[in-house]
């Protein structure tokens, strides 16, 4: 595999990516809310240090890279992420995109083609600028585009986000990853949108598929060409880790290791579910769970070293390497 991959500390060669967690977060915040009503558990210096220690713990387990899918709508702030990455031999891939299940802010209703303030779609401009020039005036270039649908489906505003993502993908070659509602089989609707708009499905990852053990649904997504994210290990609200592990192992036995990625969708801090809550309600939902617990269980269920390497090294590299 050849090509380059953009990281927070600059571009790397594809072969430098190594073992990768493909759907994670470092900090999830709501900057407007917190500016007016400070979050009692947030301390930037404390959590920067906690995140650095967390990444060092991953390095000790052989993890080399993490894709941070915190985009606008999830409180993206690249500046503390730059500080976290400094001096660490660890790759953080930043994302562009917009996270909403239903509506966009009024700014987007007023700006764009055919709107009150006529001009290009600012969403598309933002995505391309993040990829080509850098995020928030920095030199950190986004390496992936993140979009989302959930139970409301393709509302007018969500459709607009997806349209902008597709245009940015075609302009830059950067892959697209999603948040989807597996219970609603939302990945099929996302895939249909990508297909109708001329996206090569092998450049897409349908996220949160590990919430489902509907093998017909999962195999339809992969047979059509997309990768699927088995990416919520530790988040037991939607499925137990035992069920998630069985599903991955069964799909490996069916020959689908070349279409899955493994991850947690975890974070070192989230304003939506504070650390004190997570520590009590979801104690296993940490970035080390796959290394410490899930991989040994997968081995016990017959998943081979080659298949683990495929899911955690080869597939992420195939997805992220620039074309």
UniProtKB/TrEMBL annotation:
Keyword Metal-binding found: yes
Record carries keyword Disulfide bond: no
Keywords linked to the UniProt accession: Hydrolase, Metal-binding
InterPro entries tied to this protein: AryldialkylPase_Zn-BS, Metal_Hydrolase, Phosphotriesterase
Superkingdom field: Bacteria
Modified residues (N6-carboxylysine): 146
Protein family: Belongs to the metallo-dependent hydrolases superfamily. Phosphotriesterase family.
Protein name, per record: Phosphotriesterase
Organism: Roseomonas elaeocarpi
